Amino acid sequence: MNVAIRALDGPIRAEAGIPRRVLALLSTGVSKGPKEQVDWADLIGRVASTGDREAFKRLFEHFAPRIKGLMLRAGCSADEAEEIAQSALIAVWRKASQFDPATAGAAAWIFTIARNLRIDMFRRRARANRLGGTSELPDTPDPAESADVVISRVQDAARIASAITRLSAEQSMVVRLSFIEEKPHPDIASLLGIPLGTVKSRIRLAMNRLRDILDEQA
Amino acid sequence: MTINHHPPEDLLADFAAGRLEEAHQLVVGVHVAGCARCARFVQAIEQLAGLALEAVEPVPVASNAFEQVMSRIHDTPEERTAPDTGRDHGREEDIPSALRNYRIGKRRRVAPGVSMRPIELAGAENARAFLLRSAPGTRMLEHTHTGTELTLVLEGSFSHEGGRFGPGDFDYGDDEIDHRPIVGQEGPCVCLVAMTGDLRMNGLLGRLIGPFVRL
Fold this sequence. Notes:
The complex is a heterodimer. By secondary structure, chain A is an all-alpha fold. Helices cover about 70% and strands about 0% of the residues of chain A.
């Protein structure tokens, strides 16, 4: 199971059954420098167990610019994206012991941290606008989960990792553009050179396909 | 708890991406916390987001960002995870743990057999969230919405032409749906509701009380 999970973390993804064409589509930029195999989950573990500053620095150098890049694509200002990237890495340091490699890939875990920080930032701003000043606000709690759900998360992790590899390259792409990079459908249509109606139907098909794959594994 | 009605997939994907309004995020989140099937779907979207994070073109952070982060880590005291005492919401309802951090307003009667408690949200968004409690057998007024309405059953049940909705079930209503739910006889029905737009009551009674029902 760990192999399947690890596969999501680093450059060894291609060996885990994700077709190379998906990887080609998923990576937008030219990759920087030589590909090295880094076990991000292991680095997070070292931060958790010994407060390993070197391990943390490598996590920072890898993930902070990517969080900033993703947040910019999703519509944040440069200042907001910078703040979310820095705060996310602070949270990685502080919450490292909560990371469970059996339930989530390192990148997915770090994404959820950045996502929650962005939610909190927007809410704080909305509240400040409304009340004419800053105000205390509880942080977005990590999703509360009942014990049986947590258990099934562990059992499900490998299945989920394999499920998303079964989406076609086109389906992964529209899901990413629409939900994660938050591009409006017309923008996706022009980016991919397909009609707007095709964007909508492809998203719908991808959603149904993902649900079907997960259901059939359950 | 058998859950038969789930949120639409695109709503779950928006939830996983953190794109929903607070009220919607809250209601979908409470469903997902109790529904292994939808939790799997959300996790799958999070994994896809992880892949996107790995693949995105990196954008340089401030040149001193690492030092700033290290000094923030050392300067600010370790965030203590506050003991999860929660707010005192009274004993009338079994408040889901996801709601514990929210301030929940006083109960207000909105119609015969129906009362609500507003949930105080942070932002100035146009969606509202509230707990709706209806007596057994209550026939809800026929109504349509100008926006969307997300309903999660916490206790009891209701039925309408879309089926029976029990604890954990999720009902999605938009302006095309004109429904008239009936609350089950087994006990009061408590729902967590997120609503955008206004509720429009149909029928004479609806027109009479409509102006007072600012849900």
